[in-house]
Every structure is written in C-alpha cells, then in structure tokens.
Here is the input.
Amino acid sequence: MSGIPEHPELWAFLESLTPGQALSGTVTAIEPFGVFVALDNGPTHPLFPGVGFITYPELAWQSFDEATDVVQVGQRVTCEFLQFDTWNLEARLSLRAMQPDLFQGFADRVAVGQELRGEVTKVVPFGTFVRVDGIEGIEGFVHREHLIAGPEEPMSDVVRVGEEMTVVVTEVDRTRRRLSLARQPPPDDSR
Here is the structure.
C-alpha cells in the first residue's frame, strides 16, 4: 500500500520498469532531500514535480557541495532505474550509475606507499582533504596525526585551502571509496 492514493496509470508505468534500465527525462526540481525528474513517456505524478527521484548520493561519484554542482533544473539526464518506491509512487534513479567510477580506476593504478602531489581542498579540526593532482574527482584524507606533532596546534596554522603538498598513500578502501594519506615531509636541504 502506498502513502499516495491509487493512481493506476502511474502504478502500471512504475511496475513496468526493470532495475538497471536506462531512463531519460528532465530535471524539474532540486530539493534539500533530492532531485525530481520528469521521465520521458512517464505519467505525471499527483504530488511531486516528477515521477523520477534521485537521492544526493546517487547524483555523482565525486563529492560535491550543492546538487547544482551536478545538475540544473531543465537539464536533460539519463539515469539507471534502481527501484520502484511503492510508498511515494516514484522511480528511484541513479545518475552516477551512468558514469564511470573514477575511484575504482584510480585504485587499480595506485599502491600503498606511493607518493602523490595534491591540493588542500578543505581543512577540518581532525585533518584535511587533498585533491590528487591530475585525477578529477579523487580526494584523499590526511588525518591530523599525519600532519602535526602537537595536539595543541590548530589545523589552520598547519595547512590552508589551496596549498600544494606531497602525500603518501596509506590505505585504499575500494568498498567505502576512501583514500587515506599521510603528509610527506619536505626534502631535507641541509645535506
């Protein structure tokens, strides 16, 4: 039973979809909880601005700050159908499933202990995020303990957004899509 009154045409359309099927449509609304898509050849939804719905994690493989960094209202998209949400009578979609997962390709080419260059993209109290040079969308995390010696020193005194640094790969977690890094100390010029 659905949370929305019966709509036989909508129900029949959604039941006809197969997981993995590619569906195209137009982005109709971007909300704090996801993105609505009016599907081509799909009926209108009685309550929502589209019968298709993309949650934020299904928008893109890479991290983003706002949904508008990935899609715009009025944009045409092709998504993979994930499932029929029988409560909301909508097609759950994945835009990222139609794109290559750059992280998995990166994980095939990188090894623990490998040295990389990158740019600091975000500084938080427990560490910093570093975008790996030359590989769009791949960021790793350098934990605070791999940046500074003393627990008292504020992170903002150690690194700044935009700073370039050399890092070493300490872990590649394919399942959670996480890259752990440690800051490589600058070469000793006293020799």
